[in-house]
């Protein structure tokens, strides 16, 4: 499929090769927690937007991922892995340098993880790298906050054409507010609204952000689900109880579930319920892309709460 084709969703953002180290408990600077044997090591592929787009493809959406890869072994691994998830290589731009990779410390008891990531600055997707014809041919654009220049440029292009833009806003940077203004559906990681507003309460934080933005706001809350501000209406969508193996990538799968519901024109409460179900199921397997559930499984879990 060429970039001129009609896409349900185009994703612009990060990919990663994840080196997962499963340990009995999170390391601490004192006691037995300061030195422990790794129980298991796994190399898997992930990254915010790459994982979200792989999930969109698995849910049956026509999906294009746009991102930069290094010219190293990890960059080649990503290029080989994406087609296995229904994503073609036409959206990849190869750059000289080390591809993004992450050292993930995973607590085998709780499934919670810490992520330490790095890449060469040269492996940065820029605005000049964007296939704007593909963006213009999408029903929806999704961006993250790793390649911010490209994300902002792509979002402006999409919004100028009336195309909705969802987002993965995960961290506070000097350009976070600019990126926020550029998107129509701001999906925040837990804690970021407080950083932006100084308000710890989610509803107060989102209502403060509403003063400068008329789009939809969503905050992911892990096992507690999500909250949203739609116009003046504040919603809470509880999460699902599952046996957690690995939370890596669950936020990315949530965004894919949200995109699926948005494109299906579902009511917001149903969209959030489905996104929470998909994210919960992704936590029951190890790995970001490896943990993506099927559409049927996510629908079945979501409907149990309906």
Model description:
The chain has helices at residues 48-58, 73-81, 132-136, 148-160, 176-182, 192-197, 202-210, 250-263, 268-282, 295-304; strands at 7-12, 16-23, 40-46, 63-70, 92-95, 101-107, 113-118, 138-144, 165-168, 185-188, 216-220, 226-230, 233-237. The protein is an alpha/beta fold and 306 residues long. Strands 5-4-1-8-9 form a 5-stranded parallel beta sheet, sandwiched between helices. β4, α2 and β5 form a beta-alpha-beta unit.
Fold topology:
Layout: E1 7-12, E2 16-23, E3 40-46, H1 48-58, E4 63-70, H2 73-81, E5 92-95, E6 101-107, E7 113-118, H3 132-136, E8 138-144, H4 148-160, E9 165-168, H5 176-182, E10 185-188, H6 192-197, H7 202-210, E11 216-220, E12 226-230, E13 233-237, H8 250-263, H9 268-282, H10 295-304
Parallel strand pairs: 1-4, 1-8, 2-6, 4-5, 8-9, 10-11
Antiparallel strand pairs: 2-3, 6-7, 11-12, 12-13
């Amino acid at each position: 499929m060429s970039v001129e084709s009609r896409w349900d969703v185009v994703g612009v953002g990060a990919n990663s090769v994840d080196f997962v180290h499963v340990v009995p408990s999170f390391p601490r600077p004192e006691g037995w927690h300061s030195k422990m044997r790794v129980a298991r090591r796994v190399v898997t592929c992930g990254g915010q937007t790459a994982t979200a787009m792989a999930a969109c493809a698995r849910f049956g959406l026509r999906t294009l991922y746009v991102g930069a890869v290094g010219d190293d072994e990890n960059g080649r691994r990503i290029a080989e892995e994406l087609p296995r998830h229904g994503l073609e290589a036409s959206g990849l731009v190869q750059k000289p340098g080390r591809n993004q990779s992450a050292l993930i410390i995973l607590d085998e008891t709780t499934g919670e993880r810490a992520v330490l990531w790095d890449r060469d600055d040269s492996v940065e997707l820029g605005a000049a790298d964007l296939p704007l014809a593909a963006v213009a041919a999408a029903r929806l654009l999704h961006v993250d906050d790793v390649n911010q220049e490209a994300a902002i440029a792509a979002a402006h292009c999409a919004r100028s054409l009336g195309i909705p833009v969802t987002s993965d806003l995960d961290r506070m940077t000097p350009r976070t507010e600019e990126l926020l203004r550029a998107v129509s559906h701001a999906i925040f990681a837990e804690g970021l609204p407080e950083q932006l507003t100084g308000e710890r309460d989610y509803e107060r934080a989102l209502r403060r952000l509403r003063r400068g933005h008329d789009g939809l706001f969503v905050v992911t809350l892990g096992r507690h689900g999500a909250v949203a501000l739609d116009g003046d209406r504040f919603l809470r969508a509880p999460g699902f109880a599952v046996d957690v193996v690995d939370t890596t990538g669950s936020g990315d799968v949530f965004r894919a579930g949200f995109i699926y519901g948005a494109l299906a024109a579902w009511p917001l409460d149903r969209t959030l319920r489905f996104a929470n179900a998909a994210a919960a199921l992704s936590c029951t397997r190890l790995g970001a892309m490896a943990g993506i559930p099927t559409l049927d499984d996510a629908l079945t879990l979501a409907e149990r709460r309906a």
